[in-house]
């Protein structure tokens, strides 16, 4: 948790935005906030085989992230990608890089919802 808090703190400074750290389990969270962009780094892998938890997690993720989700896999990227695409309204995935961590080959990419309208900048 300390590393995640430090990452959020540094992003807060870099982007000059306020973050609100929630310490409850995501799939049981009562938070109803929505965000254009989400960040999911090697989290889903740890719970994807527990079907009730996975389904609750995917529902919260789908409700909470309206546009794009930056993601890093655990050790089974193809399985994770399949579950995430089938269980949410993210309908496009773009691989950004191969990564490695804790001795595992991982994948980093971004999921997108075609329904997302970020507005236009002219």
In short:
The chain is α+β, with helices and mostly antiparallel strands.
Overall mean confidence score, pLDDT:
87
Strand order of the largest sheet: 1-2-4-3
Largest sheet: 4 strands, mixed
**Beta-strand segment tally:** 4
Sum up the structure in keywords.
3 helices; alpha+beta; four-stranded mixed β-sheet; 4 strands; 122 residues
What does this structure look like?
The chain has 122 residues and is of the alpha+beta class. The chain has a domain at 36-116. Helix content is 32%, strand content 28%. It contains 3 helices and 4 strands, in the order αβαβαββ. The chain has helices at residues 2-15, 51-64, 77-87; strands spanning 35-41, 65-72, 92-101, 104-112. It has a 4-stranded mixed β-sheet. β1 (35-41), α2 (51-64) and β2 (65-72) form a beta-alpha-beta unit. The chain is globular, with a radius of gyration of 15 Å. The termini are far apart. The mean pLDDT is 87.
Layout of helices and strands:
Layout (H helix, E strand, L loop, with lengths): L1 H14 L19 E7 L9 H14 E8 L4 H11 L4 E10 L2 E9 L10
Parallel strand pairs: 1-2
Antiparallel strand pairs: 2-4, 3-4
């Amino acid at each position: 948790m300390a590393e995640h808090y430090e990452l959020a703190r540094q992003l807060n400074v870099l982007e000059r935005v306020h973050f609100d750290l929630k310490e409850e389990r995501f799939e049981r969270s009562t938070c109803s906030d929505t965000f254009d962009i989400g960040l999911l780094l090697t989290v889903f892998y740890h719970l994807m085989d527990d079907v009730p938890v996975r389904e609750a997690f995917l529902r919260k993720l789908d409700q909470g992230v309206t546009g794009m989700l930056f993601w890093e896999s655990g050790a089974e990227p193809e399985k994770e990608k399949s579950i995430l695409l089938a269980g949410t309204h993210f309908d496009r995935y773009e691989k950004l890089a191969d990564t490695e961590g804790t001795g595992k080959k991982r994948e980093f990419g971004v999921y997108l919802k075609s329904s997302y309208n970020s507005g236009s900048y002219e």
